[in-house]
């Protein structure tokens, strides 16, 4: 049995994505900056993909900048915006942001920027106090994720729209899972990543408003309107475009199917002693469930499940191997001890009720000896 339940870490390549990419590995290998026919074919493919990604977030192609990853897009957004100010200011960031965003914030902090960490409540939603802090301290920049990669919690972004700050939203995990409408989000820029939506690794995008000022991280040939120099990764960009097109098609139906499976999963988890679901009443991505276990560390359970062919995680894939408690959970008020006992189940789009039942059976069987031993000690 092989059950992959870690689709927030990465997704398998869609077969249509693979098919679309193949010609650009061999036959259509021209440099997009070249003026000859081979170059024009590559350039046209990039522009086609740009339109496909733009359509996913209901915007225009000229507002999409391709990068080498979601991490790079986050850095371009934060460092690129901060670099346009004459002097350092203040950036407000959610307490549960992804490590890649935090890394960009540290970079501008070293340049003199102050950081206002926005507290979250027990569900991982921005606390009322955090919104009040924004009004009082009037930061120049704000960055908040659309949906958390670990808990799946979806933020209410409308409360951030009526400020003077430049707003960046990280939609890496939300892209392809929930509808996104860039013009109505009120954001100045938005991050996407292909490999979170059944596209290739090594390509991301920053969607920007026409009026946003950015300074590039990389200089050279002036690709991507001078904001991301370097010869474009044409096959990956083509794959990103098709993945975005596939994600946009049938989004509502897939979301409903995943939600039905998630509901079935949570019902089953509720029947297992010592399992609690994080932020169960909050708005969440339809594919994501984070659990706290009462008597076994998350990493220990992951290894036991892996031996039985089940793949899931204890949180962000970018944090694996670190011994510190899950910082997203501790920001939500979960104790450090409890936070170590977390697992994340993130469903793929081919999930079925039958697969959920298989997982629940394996999980219950794996937890039973631990629960029995715990009961004997008690």
Q: How much strand?
A: 5-15%
* Quaternary form: single chain
Please state the overall shape, judged from the principal axes of the Cα atoms.
globular
Total number of helices: 12
Explain this structure.
This protein is of the alpha/beta class and 378 residues long. The chain folds into 2 domains: 124 residues, Alpha-Beta Complex (Aspartate Aminotransferase, domain 1), CATH 3.90.1150; 234 residues, Aspartate Aminotransferase, domain 2 (3-Layer(aba) Sandwich). 38% of the residues lie in helices and 14% in strands. It is built from 12 helices and 12 strands. The strands form 3 sheets. A 7-stranded mixed sheet has the order 2-8-7-6-5-3-4, sandwiched between helices. Strands 9-10-12 form a 3-stranded antiparallel sheet. It has a two-stranded parallel sheet with strand order 1-11. Helix 6 links the parallel strand 6 and strand 7. Helix 1 packs antiparallel against helix 7, helix 2 packs parallel to helix 7 and helix 3 runs parallel beside helix 4. The protein starts with a strand and ends with a helix. The C terminus is likely disordered.
List the helices and strands and how they pair.
Layout: E1 3-4, H1 15-21, H2 37-56, E2 64-67, H3 70-82, E3 90-94, H4 99-109, E4 114-118, H5 128-137, E5 141-145, E6 166-170, H6 182-185, E7 189-193, E8 204-208, H7 234-248, H8 251-269, E9 275-277, E10 288-293, H9 298-306, E11 310-311, H10 327-331, H11 336-339, E12 342-346, H12 353-377
Parallel strand pairs: 1-11, 3-4, 3-5, 5-6, 6-7
Antiparallel strand pairs: 2-8, 7-8, 9-10, 10-12
Helix pairs in contact: 1-7, 2-7, 3-4, 8-12
């Amino acid at each position: 049995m092989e059950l992959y339940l870690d689709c927030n870490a990465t997704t398998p390549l869609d077969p249509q994505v693979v098919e679309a990419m193949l010609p650009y590995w061999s036959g259509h290998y021209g440099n997009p900056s070249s003026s000859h026919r081979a170059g024009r074919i590559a350039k046209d493919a990039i522009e086609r993909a740009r339109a496909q990604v733009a359509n996913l977030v209901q915007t225009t192609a000229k507002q999409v900048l391709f990068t080498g990853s979601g991490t790079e897009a986050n850095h371009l957004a934060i460092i690129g915006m901060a670099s346009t100010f004459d002097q350092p200011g203040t950036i407000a960031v959610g307490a549960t942001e992804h490590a890649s965003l935090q890394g960009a914030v540290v970079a501008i902090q070293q340049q003199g920027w102050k950081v206002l960490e926005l507290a979250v409540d027990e569900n991982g939603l921005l606390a009322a106090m955090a919104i009040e802090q924004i009004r009082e301290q009037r930061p120049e920049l704000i960055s908040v994720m659309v949906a958390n990669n670990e808990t799946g919690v979806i933020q209410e972004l409308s409360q951030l729209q009526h400020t003077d700050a430049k707003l960046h939203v990280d939609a890496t995990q939300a892209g392809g899972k929930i509808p996104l409408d860039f013009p109505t989000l009120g954001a100045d820029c938005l991050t996407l990543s292909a490999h979170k939506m059944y596209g290739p690794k090594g390509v991301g995008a920053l969607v920007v408003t026409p009026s946003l000022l950015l300074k590039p991280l990389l200089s050279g040939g002036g690709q991507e309107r001078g904001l991301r120099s370097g010869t474009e990764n044409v096959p990956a960009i083509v794959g990103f475009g098709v993945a975005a097109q596939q994600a946009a098609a049938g989004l509502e139906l897939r979301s409903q199917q995943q939600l039905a499976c998630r509901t079935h999963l949570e019902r089953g988890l509720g029947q297992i002693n010592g399992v609690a679901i994080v932020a169960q009443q909050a708005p969440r991505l339809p594919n994501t469930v984070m659990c706290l276990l009462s008597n076994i560390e998350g990493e220990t359970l992951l290894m036991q499940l892996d031996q039985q062919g089940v793949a899931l995680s204890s949180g962000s894939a970018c944090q694996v191997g670190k011994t510190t408690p899950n910082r997203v959970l501790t920001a939500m008020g979960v104790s450090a001890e409890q936070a170590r006992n977390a697992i994340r189940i993130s469903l793929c789009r081919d999930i079925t009720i039958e697969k959920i039942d298989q997982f629940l059976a394996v999980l219950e069987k794996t937890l039973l000896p631990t629960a029995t031993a715990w009961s004997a000690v008690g």
